[in-house]
Inverse folding.
């Protein structure tokens, strides 16, 4: 019997999210989260989806090795352990693959070294991803381990979209270019949107709006990314929960020269104290909408700034693509905030974009159209599934199918 299970690991600096999937029948078997690693108040929440049983354990989990051993114990308790012969591979989310990694890659020492070399352009993410990989390899050195890169989907961008207009030699020396992020989500959602329209990905052009606490847009032509809003880091682009998005670079010089702020201070400001939280003190769109309903002017302005930037990117990517078949909303805000979707598409009928109020108000778990019947451009809500995308890419690499 061919091994068909894939364990997906998403290792953060103090957390590990995981899912176990069986690719033979497209079933999700288990899911869980270890958080606050290294603290006395560590917590592991595990759900066996085959029996719909959830267990939690609290107490100190010293490091990622201890976290993965705890995950292995929970899976083993459900008969889904890491020693199972049905486990085909472990797929790892890696945030930054630079220009080197354009597709999922089986991990060896050389791959690890290259991911480590990219730490300067992803100092918050790649070290944590590396820790998870090394720990998993130590636990199952015989098992194929695959890195799936957030940046890979965006490596199809033409140089005209990927290059910044700075001195070429300097840009090349320090690897300064637009890489883009959320790539597994953009890949999955663009493909699922085509499926929703009853077409192949190669037959449609899609603008994907991944709107979570981090937010990004992409222009996808015939299944290939041709532009995206995030750049060298995830800071560029849309207004986000705590990140500023697009900004005049001279603001940084101004804050340093006039405000006396250090580069670390400015980094913290733009990544953690900007965006929605910087504008109104909240980064939860549900709370912002509640405050707007109560007449809160700061919340209303934050919402308007958020939507204004979003509309600008829809228009820009419409121009990049020339012809648009669909606009797809995904991730926490995109899937659940009907007000954001309505505001983003308001008064864009000239572009063929419109939202049907009744369809938009319906909540659901599956992909669905929210545009009026017969619209020139479909507007869709497509739940993202990054773990399934990682599992799909991992399985296709280690268990090739004709």
């Amino acid at each position: 019997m061919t091994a068909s299970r894939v364990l997906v690991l998403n290792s953060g600096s103090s957390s590990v999210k995981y899912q176990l999937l069986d690719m033979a029948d497209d079933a999700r078997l288990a899911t869980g989260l270890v958080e606050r690693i290294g603290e006395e108040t560590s917590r592991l929440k595990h759900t066996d989806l085959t029996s719909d049983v959830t267990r939690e354990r609290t107490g100190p989990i010293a490091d990622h090795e201890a976290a993965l051993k705890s995950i292995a114990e929970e899976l083993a308790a459900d008969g889904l352990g890491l020693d199972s012969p049905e486990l085909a591979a472990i797929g790892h989310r890696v945030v930054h693959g630079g220009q080197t990694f354009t597709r999922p890659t089986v991990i060896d020492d050389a791959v690890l070294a290259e991911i480590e070399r990219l730490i300067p352009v992803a100092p918050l993410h790649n070290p944590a991803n590396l820790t998870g990989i090394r720990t998993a390899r130590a636990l199952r050195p015989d098992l194929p381990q695959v890195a799936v890169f957030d940046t890979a989907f965006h490596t199809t961008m033409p140089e005209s979209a990927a290059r910044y207009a700075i001195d070429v030699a300097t840009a090349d020396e320090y690897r300064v270019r637009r890489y883009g992020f959320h790539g597994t989500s953009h890949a999955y959602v663009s493909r699922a949107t085509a499926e929703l329209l009853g077409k192949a990905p190669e037959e449609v052009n899609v603008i994907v709006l991944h709107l979570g606490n981090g937010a990004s847009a992409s222009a996808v032509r015939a299944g290939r990314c041709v532009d995206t809003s995030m750049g060298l880091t995830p800071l560029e682009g849309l207004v986000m929960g705590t990140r500023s998005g697009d900004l005049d670079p001279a603001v940084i010089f101004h804050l340093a020269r006039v405000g006396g702020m250090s580069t670390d201070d400015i980094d913290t400001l733009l990544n953690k104290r900007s965006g929605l939280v910087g504008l109104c003190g909240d980064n939860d769109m549900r709370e912002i909408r509640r405050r707007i309903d109560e007449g809160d002017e700061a919340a209303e302005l934050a919402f308007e700034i958020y939507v204004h930037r979003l509309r600008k990117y829809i228009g820009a990517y419409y121009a990049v693509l020339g012809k648009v078949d669909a606009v797809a909303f995904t991730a926490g805000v995109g899937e659940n905030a009907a007000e954001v979707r309505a505001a983003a598409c308001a008064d864009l009928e000239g572009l063929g974009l419109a939202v049907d109020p009744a369809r938009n108000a319906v909540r659901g778990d599956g992909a669905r159209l929210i545009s009026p019947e017969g619209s020139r451009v479909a507007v869709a809500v497509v739940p993202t599934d990054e773990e399934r995308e990682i599992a799909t890419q991992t399985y296709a690499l280690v268990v090739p199918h004709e």
